[in-house]
Write a structure and sequence with these properties.
By secondary structure, this protein is α+β, with helices and mostly antiparallel strands. It has 2 domains: 191 residues, Roll (Endonuclease I-creI); 94 residues, no CATH class. The chain has a 4-stranded antiparallel β-sheet. A two-stranded antiparallel ribbon has the order 1-2. Strand 3 and strand 4 form a beta hairpin. The longest helix has 51 residues. It is rod-shaped, with a radius of gyration of 36 Å. It starts with a helix and ends with a helix. The mean pLDDT is 87.
Length: 309
């Protein structure tokens, strides 16, 4: 089972005890999967996920006292007919002033989502019916696919009420609301009350951040080691060139001492080189002497032997 399916399975098992939240969640599922017919006598919803279809049936039973007909609770089709259909539309505010079915461009009447808990329930229903979330082991991506810009923008506003900033992009003929930041997706799972999925995602995030931190440290240390090794090789080449050209006996005592130490300890750090001298010399002193040797080698290579000494 995919992570997205796991999240939907968890959310499908949860049914709010408050009727107003049950109405909000059922309204969201209907607006994502159903259409308002002109006569309002037969409501048809195509719900692909069997867990979501089952939950929609539970919401209808508890909030509207509507029993779906036998065979209508499968993964693809839900039907509400007759007086029950009109009662459902009236409750979710999809009838006009004359009591006729009204296909609205917006997602939900504000009366249905007055409370924060109802906003949570509506967002949960929208995700169950048209959302998905990627496997956090691979990437962070949360989305809900809407069939109109009005629905996507109103859903975005509901989500913003919880200090979560989603974005909307046009994908073919659909308007897709999405979130890519891991911490904001965690917050979304909290808003929808998918607590088990939230903990799983947090564990994955912690492990990924720890691995990233370790990798950064390893890369930094590797870079420093490479830099130190490259510098030591260059120093060795300069010192060997000086030795072969003029010998160490023509060098000042401090330079001769550090040159001999570097040849003896080719892998030593500047601090270790300084500690090997008698008396010990600090890193800055060692670095100064090695820099003098480098300048001397360069001068010798340029043919300025007298000037270099």
């Amino acid at each position: 089972m995919s992570f997205s399916s796991e999240v939907k399975a968890e959310l499908s098992r949860q049914v709010s005890s408050a009727r107003h939240c049950q109405i909000a969640e059922a309204a969201a599922i209907f607006r994502m999967c159903g259409q308002v017919p002109e006569d309002g006598e037969r409501l048809l919803l195509r719900i692909e996920n069997p867990n979501v279809a089952k939950k929609f049936g539970v919401l209808l039973k508890r909030a509207f006292e509507i029993d779906l007909q036998a065979g209508n609770t499968g993964p693809a089709l839900c039907v509400i007919e007759g007086e029950e259909a009109l009662r459902f539309l009236q409750t979710v505010k999809l009838l006009d002033a004359d009591g006729r079915p009204e296909e609205r461009k917006d997602f939900v009447n504000s009366m249905v989502v007055q409370n924060a808990c109802c906003k949570r329930a509506f967002i949960r229903g929208a995700f169950l019916a048209g959302g998905s979330i990627s496997n956090p082991q691979k990437s962070y991506h949360f989305e809900i696919v809407c069939d109109s810009a009005e629905k996507a923008e109103q859903l975005r506003a509901l989500i913003r009420a919880f200090d979560i900033e989603a974005k909307v992009v046009l994908r073919k003929r659909y308007h897709v609301l999405y979130i890519k930041e891991g911490d904001q997706i965690v917050d979304m799972l909290g808003v929808m009350e998918a607590h088990l999925a939230l903990m799983e995602l947090e564990n994955v995030r912690i492990l990924r951040e720890m691995r990233g931190c370790v990798n950064r440290k390893v890369n930094c240390e590797t870079a420093n080691i490479n830099k130190t090794v490259s510098a030591a090789v260059e120093q060795m080449n300069d010192i060997l060139y000086i030795r072969d050209r003029i010998g160490f006996d023509r060098l000042p005592e401090g330079l001769e001492e550090i040159a001999a130490a570097r040849l003896e300890y080719p892998e030593a750090t500047l601090k270790e080189l300084g500690d090997s001298l008698v008396p010990p010399v600090g890193k800055s002193g060692v670095n100064h002497r090695l820099r003098k040797l480098k300048e001397l080698a360069r001068s010798l290579r340029d043919g300025d032997e007298e000037e270099s000494l």
